[in-house]
Amino acid sequence: MAGVEATQPAPAVDISKTSNMPAEGYDKKCIFCKIVNHEMRTELLHCDEEISCFRDIKPGAPHHYLVVPTRHVGNCKSLSKEHVPLVKRMVETGKEILQKNNVTDLSDVRFGFHWPPFCSVTHLHLHVLAPATEMGFMSRLFYRLNSYWFITADQLIEILNSKEETN
Fold first, then answer.
1. Cystine design at 15: which of 26, 31, 36, 39 (Cβ 3.0–4.6 Å)?
2. Are 45 and 55 in contact (CB under 8 A)?
3. Which residues catalyse the reaction (predicted)?
4. Which of 110, 116, 117 is nearest to 141 (CA)?
């Protein structure tokens, strides 16, 4: 990351006046948009034009990261087949963050999304939890496989691939 000391708050950015991210890629009411635009004091573990990553404020596992599109994208139900590469990139970024944090057993990891209406934030976000075997009781419930409220990244990709292309 470039040039901002950890003790200094990042400057607030008026995204509507920047040329590299138009207003339609930013929701001023969205907490995740504010985080990726350095309007909040949250450490970004990864940030590029497409993907950003930070720690979950209520971790459900020893390693719990949120991988989000840098530009505002709605929840899982708002996605189409054309979003499959984005979801795959989110998963790859999650794996890279885990590896940078010395998580090498990727078989004990949970990658998934809360299914609407069970989303607390409507900005698309991938939960990356590891090790899954160390999740507590409530986390096992919130991030439970094959539930109405949580789907894996692979399940989302399968759903999106079954949709028709949008024009």
1. 26
2. yes
3. 125
4. 110
Name the stretches of the chain with pLDDT < 70: 1-24, 165-167
Letter for the amino acid at 35?
A: I
The DSSP bridge partners found for residue 111 are 128
**DSSP reduced 3-state for 64:** strand
> For residue 76, which of 112, 116, 24 has the smallest C-alpha distance?
116
Tell me which residue has tokens 């299914």: 115
Contact 109, 92 (CB under 8 A): no
Instruction: Identify which of 113, 105, 154, 95 has the alpha carbon closest to the alpha carbon of residue 134.
Output: 105
SS (H, E, C) 5-17: CCCCCCCCCCHHH
Q: Give the C-alpha separation, 15 to 5, whole Å.
A: 22
For tokens 């990726």, the residue is 36
38-56: b (≥16 Cβ within 10 Å) or e = bbeebeebbbeeebbbbbe
Question: Cα separation of 109 and 107, whole Å?
Answer: 6
Phi, psi of 51 (to 5 degrees): -130, 140
The rounded distance, in Å, linking the Cα atoms of 5 and 43 is 11
